[in-house]
Amino acid sequence: MKSKNMFIVAIIIGVVSGFLSTHGFSLGWYNLVFWGIVGVGTGLFCPDKKTALWTGTLYGFCLSLSFLFSGFQGVSSKFLVFTVFSLGLSVVGAIGGLTASCTGYWIRKNRLKSS
After folding, report:
1. DSSP string for 25-88
2. Which are the contacts of 56, defined by CB distance < 8 A and separation ≥ 6?
3. What is the DSSP letter of 21?
4. pLDDT tens digits, residue range 28-66?
5. How many CA atoms within 13 Å lie on the side-chain side of 87?
6. Which of 96, 99, 108 is nearest to 1 (CA)?
7. What span, in angstroms and rounded, lies between the C-alpha atoms of 43 and 59?
8. What distances in angstroms separate CA 81 from CA 18, 51, 95, one per listed residue?
9. What pLDDT, on a 0 to 100 scale, did the predictor assign at position 108?
10. Angle of CA points 32, 42, 82, to nearest 5°
């Protein structure tokens, strides 16, 4: 798959996974396992390392942001503070997504070498 398409797919998967984790099924800390598996899955389809890095970063950032915003139940006066807080936490999510996607790419790369 082309890199540009992978980036779009990663954003969509991140947003959908974050939303589903809030509204579709709330698994508590098991969400982290689900998010990690999905992140590794995105890395399995990346054609090169650079794409895996960017795909994972976009996936993790969008996942965290959509998860936090879809679960926001505060008052409108706290929305700005929550937005800044969410953006900061989404950077941490981006690091997690990057790690998961690169793991998937590493698995793919090493599996192809041994074949």
Report:
1. ---TTHHHHHHHHHHHHHHHT-SSHHHHHHHHHHHHHHHHHHHHHHT--S-GGGHHHHHHHHHH
2. 10, 39, 42, 43, 94, 97, 98, 99, 100, 101, 102
3. I
4. 778 899 999 999 999 999 999 999 999 999 999 999 999
5. 5
6. 108
7. 10
8. 20, 33, 22
9. 92
10. 45
